[in-house]
Predict the 3D structure of the following.
Amino acid sequence: MIVSGSGTQSLAAELAAETNHRLAGVSFEQFPDGEGIVRIDGTPEHAVVVASTVSDRAHVELLQLQDAAREAGADRVTTVLPYMGYARQDRAFESGQPVSARAVARAISTGTDRVLTVEPHESSVCERFTVPATPVDAAGRLAAELSAPDPLVVAPDASAAELAQAVCDAHGSGECVHFEKRRRSGTDVEVEAEFALDRPVADRPVVLVDDIIATGSTMCQAARAVLDRGAASVTVACVHPLLVRDAYLRLRRVGVDRVIGTDTIERPVSTVTVAPAIAAAL
Ligand code: R5P
């Protein structure tokens, strides 16, 4: 039985259809003090809880869903984290800080037998769980949305290079480069493109690929670099379209033609479902 979090209803329904699992009825309510409460209808034997932890509230909701599934009689719980929040805090950046990815992974592990997480920022985050955890590859899903022949596929930083190459390989045409990025703050980044742009850019379609778009600062900088060199079009593709505040507007205003994201996070750009990739790994 697929048990959906409040923010992943579309993906959960796709996954139920893909796997022929039943889709549980789940209600989400709030007490007057603001605390949330969930209720699962039905008695699952194997509960597949699908929830992206995009906020602290969503983290608590996931823990509640896992616990409610056990209460409802599930003897096996699999947790699917389409998007795992706090995964980018994979080390203590300054003394006195926690390794937040480890802290949340431990908490999630207490309520499940197994974890699947789609395209985590670093696959090593799976080692932070105390139950078996597997990363799910989404590159092929993103590539299916691309149609331009012979694009220049660009990762805006080295950590996205592997994903961009996988998208390029799955697309079956084009070539792949990566830029370098220096982050000065949460919203201020500098993208160094010069050294990577010895390939022809003028009049060529460009696809920028990253795992996450949060404020859009990284992709805006990368888009400016290729548009300044005459790119014919710029498509921005990401697995996790967090798109906080005015990120979408910023991308379009800088000259990006199209933004593609997956349904790990439900946004208007989430046109690609990762359900087949999750189903294959279940
Ligand atoms: C971090 O390294 C990630 O891969 C993304 O590049 C980052 O989260 C994007 O953030 P923003 O959209 O705020 O620049």
